[in-house]
Amino acid sequence: MSGGWNTIESDAGVFTYLVENLGVKNVQFEELISLDAEFLRQQSPVYGVIFLFKYPTGERPTGVPRDGSFDRDVADEDLFFAAQTIQNACGTQALLSVLLNKEDEIDLGPQLKEFKEFTRAFPSELRGEALSNSELIRDVHNSFARSSPFVDETQRIATEDDDVYHFIAYTPINGVLYELDGLQPAPISHGPCSNDEFPDKVIPVLQHRINRYPANEIRFNLLAMVRDLRIRALEIGDQDWLYRENQKRSAWQWENALRRHNFVGFINEILKGVVRSKLKEGGSAYDKWVEEASSRTLARMEGNSRKNESG
Q1: For residue 5, is it within any domain?
Q2: Where exactly is the site Transition state stabilizer (predicted)?
Q3: Rounded-to-integer distance, Cα 99 and Cα 133, Å
Q4: Residue 198: how many CB atoms within 10 A of its CB?
Q5: What is the SS3 assignment for 224?
Q6: Sorting pLDDT into bands at 50, 70 and 90, what band is 185?
Q7: pLDDT tens for residues 264-285?
Q8: How would residue 153 be classed by pLDDT, with cut points 50, 70 and 90?
């Protein structure tokens, strides 16, 4: 085992089962397809949001954030904030930034409670090291990475030409709306905010940040961390809603299983079987099959070329 952290997707099903496998109870993630405070409020209680965005590779943290203000005075014991010390861990770090600040509202389970207690008096840099070196958190994180025989994420180094994406968290803590970004030197305060006000306060902050990007930049993703919606469905006796939530969970489990599986060997066996069957039909049949496939590929390439010329 290399001990590295692999890339995971910004996906509600991935994040839901990731926190569940860490021992967290009654929490799920919902994708927000629009910046709509009312829709976010309907998911209440909302513990925080995880925002994925394209990170300029040449940009470095400065002494003053572009939005909000650094809160360098908040005590480490009052707010969990960890510096990001390793590549590819920012998705899990962002969701932990919400979870570990909500132990009064969320059942974290014994392992995360122990981790928070162990790091309670640590400064942010040491918390980041402790997180990066947690075998439990790393193993659960990596269990949701896509299986690929071609890419070793632990060896990949981003360049200026790469599209690099970064996860950060927004959550209300002790009456303040905080932005928790492990690449920044401190938590960023966006002003007073109660739990009830969170949907109305966080949406303008997100909108202002997105507006700094070119109008054609649409590669953003926003996930809300909420209480398990099946609980709400049971509370109000909505059986249809409960059925839909259970169906969604089943789909998530199936998708996560597919993510873990490497299909290259399976595809290779299919191709070998097709080739063997063609060879059994005789050399002329095989040659005809290859010729027909080549002709179709050439025709498709010529068609694409004509479309590009007319465009």
Answers
A1: no
A2: 84
A3: 18
A4: 24
A5: strand
A6: very high
A7: 454 455 555 566 666 666 656 6
A8: very low
Q: Which of left, alpha, beta for 294 (phi over 0: left; psi -120 to 50: alpha)?
A: alpha
Is 166 catalytic? The answer is: yes
Do residues 177 and 301 share a domain? no
CA 108 centroid distance within chain: 19
pLDDT at 281: 65
208 is catalytic: no
Q: Which of 260, 279, 299 is the last residue of a domain?
A: 260
| Bigger pLDDT: 54 vs 199 | 199
Residues 149 and 182 in one domain: yes
Looking at the structure of the chain, the number of domains it has is: 2
Q: Among 223, 238, 260, where does a domain finish?
A: 260
Q: Which of 90, 141, 190, 193 is catalytic?
A: 90
The DSSP code sequence of 143-190 is TTSPP-SS--TTT----TTS-EEEEEEEEEETTEEEEE-TTSSS-EEE
Q: What 3-state DSSP class applies to 70?
A: strand
Cβ neighbours for 8, distance < 8 A, ≥ 6 positions apart: 14, 18, 88, 91, 92, 141, 144, 145
Note whether residue 147 is domain-resident: yes
Q: Which residue has the higher pLDDT, 2 or 83?
A: 83
| Angle 200-215-57 from CA coordinates, rounded to 5° | 90
Q: Which of 141, 166, 193, 208 is catalytic?
A: 166
Give me the CATH number covering residue 51. Answer: 3.40.532.10
* Residue 301: domain span: 264-310
Contact indicator for 229, 252 with CB cutoff of 8 Å: no
